[in-house]
Specification:
Number of strands: 7
Largest sheet: 7 strands, parallel
CATH topology: Rossmann fold
Oligomer: single chain
Shape: globular
Radius of gyration: 17 Å
Structural class: alpha/beta
Strand content: 15-25%
CATH superfamily: NAD(P)-binding Rossmann-like Domain
Order of helices and strands: HEHEHEHEHEHEHE
Number of helices: 7
Distance between the termini: 40 Å
Strand order of the largest sheet: 3-2-1-4-5-6-7
Length: 224
Amino acid sequence: MDLTNLKSAKNKMTLCTIVGMGPGIGYAVARKFGQEGFEIGMIARNEDRLQQYELSLYEAGISASYAVADASDTVQLQSALQKLGNPQVLIYNAAVVEKSSAETINPEKLTNDFNVNVGGALVCAQYVLPSMRGSGGSILLTGGSFAHAPNPHYFSLSIGKGALWNLAMCLAKEYEPRGIHVGMVSVYGKVARGTRYDPDLIAQEFWKLHLQPRGKWEKEVQVR
């Protein structure tokens, strides 16, 4: 099957959209859900990398497509989501991972980081909720230890992960009764292959979270 034919089969498959597609957790999640029979939708800023991921997934027998968007740009993000279609699973993995401090960070920079770390997640949730209300689905977010133990050397990211955790908990309380599973996989260390924070192991946690039966849904899984 060539790439064109593989893409044409996507209407027969269930869609998992990953926002913040990258070489670590994003790609590992794409491979895991793709191996389990999902069509993969990918959103990120770098089109060259997205094309590489698409080809690599195709070579692994996984149907994938992409749309280019900056997670901090509401219009771009909505357009990208619309292009890819309505997913059964939304993975929000976008974040600005940079050192910063309360003393030196520019307020405009903090706001832009917040738009990526939190605002984009809300935009994505608002997009998928209408279709998920009727059919169910999973909204899964990449969290981290900074939500519960802020690091002053990662000031902006700590604020973002704390707010993202609260966003997830609010969405879970409101939408779990409507059949939508909202949860987080919170990573408590540096993502690196061959460690307990191997992206493939983290991807397994996303998959297990998605598979949980209603009535046993967890709101957060911590990878320590």
